[in-house]
Here is the input.
Amino acid sequence: MLDGFKKFIARGNMVDMAVGVVMGAAVTGIVNALVDSIINPLIAAIFGKPDLSKTWNWTITNWAGENSVISFGSLLNALLNFLIIAIAVYENVAASEPDLSPEEQTVILLQDIRNSLAAQQAVTAAPEAPAATVAVESK
Here is the structure.
C-alpha cells in the first residue's frame, strides 16, 4: 500500500491533483473531527497539552525584547492532518481506478488522442450542402 501511495504522490498527474483537492475538501470535516475528538485528547493525556501545537515550542527573544515562538508541534499537527487527508484521498482514488501498467495507460491515452483527432477531422471535413445544379438542354 505504501509503494502505491508513493507512486500516486510522485506521479504529478493534474487529474489526480484535482481529485485530491476535491476529495481533500470532502474529507476535511471528517479529519477535523478525528483530530479534535480522538487524536488531540490522546495527545493531552500523553503530553499534558491540549494539542500538538502547544508542544515542543521554543521562545526566542531578540535584542529589542520581542518574543518569537518556534513551534515544532504546530508543524507536526499540520503534517498529521495532511497525512490523514492524503491517505483518505489515496484510498478512495486507488479503489476507484483500475491498476493499469504504464503501457496500458499510454495505449488508452493514444486511443483518446486518436478519437479526438478523428472527431475534429469529421467536423472540419463535413461536406457542405451541394449547390443547386441547373441542367440546360440545347435544341
